[in-house]
Please model this.
Amino acid sequence: MNYSDIMAEQNLSVIDETGVDESEVSTLTLNEVLQYEDQIIEDTAAVLGALNDKNCSYAEGYVKRQALYSCLTCIPEGKNDPEKRAGICLACSYHCHDGHELIELYTKRNFRCDCGNSKFDSFQCNILEDKDPLNENNIYNQNFQGTYCVCSRPYPDPEDSVSDEMIQCIVCEDWYHTRHLNISLPVNSFVEMACFNCVGDHQFLLHYKEASVEESEPCVSVDNEEDIAVSDDQCHQESSENKEEILLENIDPLQMENDMDGECKKPKTTSHVSTLFWSDISWRNRLCKCDICLEMYEDENVLYLIDSEDPVQIYEEKGKAKTQEVIENQDRDFLSSMNRVQLMETIAGYNELKTGLADFFKDFAEKRKVIKEEDVREFFEEMQAKKKRRTEMPYFCH
Model:
């Protein structure tokens, strides 16, 4: 149960019963604890909510985006040998590799589950045995061996004392420490990032640098315009006046318009190679789709950038929506399975618990006392005793 609504305005502190003097204990408000719990649940739903945890995803082919895992128990060589790297789907992590040493890889694009193929020697998938020896189109970066960023270190890193978040590049899908991106983080919020290595490899991205995402000066420069993958003399550039008329907020991020009129819509480029940030996934809508640019995307293996289902944000929204749908269906099925008496008892029990918790928290808030483990235990023991007295009460007096 989520108790956020009950004590939304309470400002309480919670600690475990450790025997430590209360004045020496660093406490959190109950709201902070509940918000942290809710965030974990929401993050899990976003990453795993859209997936099937019972059926191996191999049958779906190269899935556009899914959560993946690397099993070091089955393939310990994968830590050092790039040829041994392998990835498994969510269902296989549950039904084939339960209890194994797994590396959580978050999500990867266009990947087919490797569980039980030739990389696993004699190990077979418990869900689906008939699989090709190898998935030739899978891409395995260093994350599959448990290292990340240009520093090639694990996360969390036991030898790194610096507190630093990591951000995933939308191209190579590696994760980078913010301090290793060779640029300061944007002043404004952002949802997508392309690392400086990928921008250097795919310099057409420089044409779509967002002016709305303020960042520090890049540290690497390109010698001349001819270094750009598709030079300006190959196709007509959009005028700066028209470029300014494009309003990000008016572009539907789910609608990738396909301009196949032969005219290149690519804006003029900047001359600096650096990590790029975008404030919204709708920047992808502006990617030119003339014949020349489409051929370039294919040659550079980045056609996914114009796929409306590729962004992680879209994937996570689907996961959250599906999780909410499952919860609602489960609640409905649970309630419909009860008879009228059971339903009324359940509702009464919920209301009693809600009222009891509200009074319990209010008392501690008014006295500005810290809630200890023994207080919570005592509360639920009292609630259980009330329930027992109620259920043992005779219906008729003799």
